[in-house]
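Researcher: Here's the sequence for the chain we discussed earlier.
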Amino acid sequence: MSKWKEIVTYGMCVNKINGEPKDHCRHFLAGGEEGTPEAFFCSGCGCHVCFHWKYVKKEIDMSTAIVKYGKCLKNHMAHMGGRCSLDGCGEFMAAGEEGTPEALSCSACGCHRSFHDKDYL
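Model: Thanks. This is the structure I predict for it:
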């Protein structure tokens, strides 16, 4: 199962007649139930779905994603105006049991979990 979920929407109609827009349809409105041939035609302008701009938005499916926190990215020299200095902590290890405030700090470096690199498996 993929950790990414695609959300597809269709926008403005780009069908033209003699170089001019056929109509000024702004959004694709399916003309029938999903899975039927009518669903491929816009009820607003009558054009096929291929004449409408396609927008694909990818989101992480949080119902199946497993989160792992990696190396610490906190810049320990930021408050002194120096260059970037990392502490070398390679992986987040919770300092307490899940659900407690201590679970949000790393037992290796003491930083908050938000400073560690987040990866979705």
